[in-house]
Amino acid sequence: MIFLKSENVSYQNIKTLHNIELTVKKGEKLALIGHSGSGKSTLLKLIYERYSDNTALVPQDYGLVNHLSVYHNVYMGQLNQNSTWYNIVNLVRPWQKPLERISIILSQLQLEDYLFRPVGQLSGGQKQRVAVARSLFQGGNLLLADEPVSSVDEKQSQVVLRQLCNHFSTVVLAMHDTQLALAFCDRIIGLEKGKIVLDQPSHKLASQDLLALYAE
Amino acid sequence: MKKTIILSTLLILFSLISSTTLVAADTQKTLVFSAIPDQDETRLKQRFSGMADYLSKKLNIPVKYVPVKSYSAVVTAFRNNQVQLAWFGGLSGVQARLRVTDSQAIAQGIEDTQFHSYIIAHHSTGLKKGDDLPKGIAGKTFTFGSKGSTSGRLMPQFYIEKAFNKKTDAIFKRVGFSGNHSRTIALVQTGAYQIGAVNFKVWDKALKDGKVDLEKVSVIWKTPAYPDYQWTIRGDVDASWGEGFSKKVQAALLDLKDEALLSKFPRSGFIKAENSDYQPIVDTAKSIGLID
Amino acid sequence: MPSKPYKHSAAWNVSWVFIFIAVGSLFVADIEISTFEPWGELSRFFLAIFSPDWTHYKDIGDAILQTLAFAILGVVFGCVVGFALALVFHWRLVRTICALVRAVHELFWALIFLQIFGLHPLTGLLAIGLPYAATFAKIYAEILEEGDKSALQAVDPKTSVISVFFYARLPDLWVHFKTYTLYRLECALRSSTVLGFVGLPTVGYLLSSAFLEGNYTEVWGLLLLFYLIIATIRYWLRPKLLPFYILVSPFIIANDSEISSENMVRFFTEDIIPTPIRNGEGLVELGQWFNELFLTQALPGIANTLILTQIALVITAILTLLFFPLISSHFFKQTGQTMGHTFLVIVRSTPEYILAYILLQLWGPSMLPAIIALAMHNGAIIGHLIGRYSNEITLRIDTVKGGNRYFYELLPRLYGQFLAFLFYRWEIILRESAILGILGIATLGFYIDSAIQDLRLDKAIILIVITALLNVVVDSISRRLRSRLRLKTAVECS
Q1: Within chain B, which residue ranges are assigned CATH 3.40.190.10?
Q2: Does the beta carbon of C9 lie under 8 angstroms from any beta carbon of chain A?
């Protein structure tokens, strides 16, 4: 599914990823953990560049359009699957079919009350769930999500992660909550200063083991 | 850096030139004259600077021509004493003399006693020349010359409204103002307007110069005669240049025999004129509401 | 299923109101091409671009110097007076007077000053300087208002006002003042050019004369030089050279006509006094006189001005939406953007008055040329600004392309800014619509020009005041709409 070999990435002459070797099999649920700046986001970006086909994305800054409604932001996940005309008409008057599907997705994320609310009026956590809803609506074989639950509370984090893991067969999540990572993913990748320093199945790890990665 | 130096020198040079032209004429008071821009506005300066030289030689004082963009601006400049002598049309002359007391019409072209306007039409209208104004002009698009023109507006408007007993706005589909006579000919010739009103002297000259394509545009009616262009001088010139100055200017104008200079007007010669010669213009302008 | 139906935003609804008004206006507007063979003349005009004529280089050189000198002096006058006014802009009286002065277009000011000063250079100087001073006052005041005041608070309260200003405020604000003033100089070059159409000795004088005679090769000779001047503005307009320019300019615009106080007094005490009063008639006659003026000229003038404005505004909006992608990095690579920039610079550098004039000559007098000229010019200005804004937006790496990107990613993000600029230009479009009447379209400018040509200044002045009031009204509606929709504008759009 994903196969990276001796990958290096530089940004403004500073190396952000060193010699990355990574193979991900179909069906694996992967968590990337490490400090901010350790290269998680860069690695996700790199994977997306290589495997953009049929891949859904939850970027760290959500990439939502504040002036559009929740519905339209979620709908944007499938822009490429419809003709431009169909999409433009949808802006003026939402189509029934995507509306039904999106309503269901939103109710799974407890956002059903905000269907036609402009995203700009939502709280940070709500926005994050809209970004998640967009990826769910988009669907695909692979999900790349950068801190998809950083702004939602504990209980909702569970809901969001369950939805994502049920929906996509292969999942790569950048996470800082190690417990959630262990609970939802079957493999943990630890990153430090742009290098992979840990690569273990979750069942061999305890929360304690991961703390080292966050130690100074 | 080089560029700035070149630019600066150029600018200094230019400023020097313009400032020297500034002070050159300071010794004796300059008589300034102007003329209504009734045709070919591009070369107004060329058209009238010869006249300035002629007057200067005859009167022994510096004479300058200033180009002015509109009929009303000539009247205003005349009224403001920025221009003392002007070659006016019938209407603009009347407007000027109403505003400057003691100003006098002193000379007119030989043709100006019996002036006419032509109504011209684009070939697509199918209108033919007639002794009476062809009624077929109704409902067409129509252009006058300048808003302040006698032969391009006042008289044609008067005769057309008389013939139809209606305002021009109600007769024609669209009424425009081309700006001047040569433009009127050009606009009707290209079909921008179907009908136009034009000064007969400008038309004849354009025809002679080969600027008119008779296949495209032709005269369909000639208005009755009326008095038109004249030289008008301010009443206070005698105080500035000495007793009898306006008589001297008049004599200089009547004396003008140079064909080349006369062709710029275009007239065959100048004869005496008086304010009262233009009473018909005053009456007409009043009747269609152009002056109060 | 959602219980509530989808509701569009307030901005969307407002947009449709404007579109409906414009469509309604189209039904009553005269937008016919009345020329018999319009395209022949148009191609003749555009073919002439290949053989520009500079035979009369002496006249042209002089006209260009005059254009530059009037623009520079006008802006200098405007920014000195404007700055002084900006300091007292919180006085209601100053604000009101500035709003009224601003509401009258440079060309109308020129027509008024032509009556007072005739051909004296003061006519052109004040025609640019006065409305510019009023604009400068407003914008400078806004800059002072919005500028960072933190340095101010650190100053010992006993320091004199003037030193506080020069030490604590000016250094921070200088850049804003400079940027805006330079931008206005570019505008002034356009204004100064256009003033030639009413008789000032600038490029417009030659341009309009060449046009009247159909000398398109000469027209292009002038237009190309004009573009060259605008395009090279940052090369020749160096702060170091400015004192030199200012010093030289008076000599360029000087001529030997004199102003007499007599004329000025007469203008105010006779010319602009309504005829019935001047003739000592009663109030009844005055009422009749005004009534007739209002019903036969002001009212149709106002109607046509508004019709033209509303149509032009919506077409400006459409063109803006078409133009901005041309310079947007989201749609074109570097070379494409450069071409887009060149196109927009040319379109927006051409004064709308000249554009309308060109199209009128070619298509005959209807509102169509005016609509296209206004929409092209303003669309290029706003398109340029919106395009620049769009380049500040970063999109997701998995973003879509083409129409989807335009309608989903960019338009919603830019729409507020777009409306803000549009409403800001609304009043400017109105002012220009009125002015285009001078070219023969029956907006207020037509009646004003006619009154001046008939030497009825009393009527002309009243019509000009009506035009100004109309402007003030539209400006305040626009301001209210902007604050209702919470739209912010930058000063660069005025």
Answers
A1: 28-112+227-287, 116-222
A2: yes
- The answer to whether residues A125 and A146 belong to one domain is no
Please tell me the distance from the alpha carbon of residue A141 to that of residue A132, in angstroms, as a whole number. 15
Residue numbers in C near B25 (CB within 8 A): 256
Q: Do the two chains C and A touch, given a threshold of 8 Å on CB pairs and at least 3 pairs?
A: yes
Return the higher-pLDDT residue of B21 and C159.
C159
Q: Quick one: what percent of chain C has pLDDT higher than 70? A: 95
| Selected residue with higher pLDDT from B39 and C181 | C181
Q: How far is A68 from chain C (nearest CA, A)?
A: 7
Residue A163 forms part of a structural domain:
yes
- Complex ipTM more than 0.85, yes or no: yes
Q: Are residues A94 and A125 in the same domain?
A: yes
Q: Which CATH number describes the domain made up of B28-112+227-287?
A: 3.40.190.10
Are A40 and A78 within one domain? Answer: no
Per-residue pLDDT of A96-125, as tens digits, reads 999 999 999 999 999 999 999 999 999 999
Give domain status of residue A102, yes or no: yes
Structural domain range at position A94:
65-138
Average pLDDT over chain C, rounded to an integer: 89
Which 94-153 residues of chain A touch chain C by CB within 8 A?
Answer: 94, 99-100, 103, 112, 115-116, 118
How far, in Å, CA of C219 to CA of C333, rounded?
A: 34
What average pLDDT does this structure show over A23-44?
A: 89
Chain C residues near residue A52 by CB distance under 8 angstroms: 398
pLDDT tens digits for range C82-96: 999 999 998 999 999
Q: Which residue of C has its CA nearest to B79?
A: C263
pLDDT tens-digit series, residues B240-260: 899 999 999 999 999 999 999
Task: Give first-to-last CA distance, chain C, whole Å.
Answer: 47
**Helices and strands per DSSP (H, E), number in chain C:** 24, 0
Structural domains in chain C plus CATH codes: 11-50+277-494 (1.10.3720.10), 51-271 (1.10.3720.10)
Boundary (domain end) residue, out of A138, A156, A171: A138
User: Which one of B32, B40, B69 has the shortest CB-CB distance to C205?
Assistant: B69
C182, two tokens? 């330079």
SS3 string, chain A, reads CEEEEEEEEEECCEEEEEEEEEEECCCCEEEEECCCCCCHHHHHHHHHHHCCCCEEEECCCCCCCCCCEHHHHHHHHHHHHCCHHHHHHHHHCCCHHHHHHHHHHHHHCCCHHHCCCEHHHCCHHHHHHHHHHHHHHHCCCEEEEECCCCCCCHHHHHHHHHHHHHHCCEEEEEECCHHHHHHHCCEEEEEECCEEEEEEEHHHCCHHHHHHHHCC
- Using CA coordinates, name the residue in chain C closest to B211: C213
SS3 B127: coil
Q: Is the pLDDT of residue B3 over 70?
A: no
The verdict on A207 and A103 lying in the same domain is: no
- A and B touch per CB criterion (3+ pairs under 8 A): no
Q: Residue B24 pLDDT > 50, yes or no?
A: no
Number of domains forming the structure of chain A:
2
Q: Angle at which helices B90-99 and B71-79 pack, to 10 degrees?
A: 30
B116-222: what CATH class?
alpha beta
The answer to whether the CB atoms of B70 and C34 lie below 8 A apart is: no
In this structure, are A216 and A144 located in the same domain? yes
- Are C364 and B73 a contacting pair at CB < 8 A? no
What is the pLDDT at residue B18?
47
Residues B148, C241: C-beta atoms closer than 8 Å = no
Residues A201 and A173 in one domain: yes
C248, B73: Cβ pair inside 8 Å? no
List chain A residues with CB under 8 Å of C9.
67, 118
* Type of residue numbered C34: S
Last residue of a domain, one of A138, A154, A180: A138
